[in-house]
Amino acid sequence: MKKKLAALLLAAMTITAVAGCGKGGDSSGSSQGAASGDGGAKTEEEAPADNAAADEGAATGEVQDIALKVWCPQNQVDSGIMEQQQAAFAAEHPEYNITWTTEIVGEDKCQESVLKDVGAAADVFLFASDQLPSLVEAGAIARLGGATEEMVNSTIAEAVVATAKVDDALYAIPFTHNTFFMFYDKTILDEADVTSLEKIMAKETADNVYNFYFESAGGWKLGCYYYGAGLSIFGPDGSDVAAGVDWNSEKGVAVTNYLIDLINNPKCAYDGEISVSELAGDHRIGAWFDGSWNYDLYKGILGDDLGMAIIPTFNPDGNDYQLLGFYGSKCIGVNAKSANMAAAVAFAAFLGNEENQLLRYELSAQIPANIAAGESEAVKADPLATVIVEEANKASVAQPANAEFSARYWTYANAIPTEIRSKEITKDNVQEKLDAFVEAMTK
User: Fold this and answer.
1) Residues 178 and 327 sit within 8 Å (Cβ to Cβ)
2) Beta bridge partners of 126
3) What is the pTM (predicted TM-score) of this model?
4) pLDDT per residue over 116-129, tens digit each?
5) Strand pairing partners for 65?
């Protein structure tokens, strides 16, 4: 899987091209829709009527009054990207008189928000790819076909497209990759320091400076320690529930004891108690993990003092292990219950095309999944793109997209660092706590 991912990113991004955070309502099973960008569809039985209506409207020049609700993260609003894209889409589609509603819902919260009430959810939403199995299982996301499917298959690398499929059926349009890497302050650490957590923590710094910032991101970043040490959940690719969970093994105990020492180290800042941006603004944080979506924030604060590297190694049991961060994609999906399916699919496809992936890169530093967009000179010369490729090649593992994993992991894994910080998990009871975690994951 790791070699496949490395090949994907090298082929998809440079540098020949580019490959593109994550957390259950209708329980009727998979969406049966086969929506397409040249007309779209709600469900298989409704498709002919929808397509016929769209064709008739285009032929007669009639203008349809429709409403489209869009859910996207804060950065797509603050940067003005979404507003630009909506205006451009409306200009290209005079057959629609569109009333837009744009609401801020982070990609990591999308599944949770959609499944609260699918009928009231957005027509078009941006989400993290690991949420796809749950959305499909709930019948909340439309299956894509026709011109949209052709666009995705012909313009995005196959392994990236795979993050938007369930049982070989396409349900979304990947627009960027979703992984994290390491930022650091060059005035505090240098390239030699950031190769291992041991070196980062051993660096002599001023009393008011933290060497490292610990953030589990609800379990998303936490996983890099356990997967880095060779542990897994439901097998190496997360698809074999029968394989169980081995985090309560001797190695898992060693990793957790390492985290106990790290989180309780006075030179390690802890998420929720103080912000990275506040610390970075005062040159008081050495290194931290984050993604491309916050690059502009940190670059604006630190300028040329901002460094980037792959996440480091760590040594929990006398052996050096490369931390392995989850890799997935961020995608554009369409609500299976959208009242304006043809327009919703057309807009989703518009958001995911080459032009708009480049616009998103230019305005919010999200490296495009579209191959042609990734071949632009700006992307190929971008050190941000370079570090993401290296991260994928050397320090990542495909994020499990199994519905059982998604339904359990985020809740139970997030409790581990929280309980370490509150002293509920200590070296005296770590085995007991890990046994309870494994039981909760597998019961």
Assistant:
1) yes
2) 332
3) 0.73
4) 999 999 999 999 99
5) 97
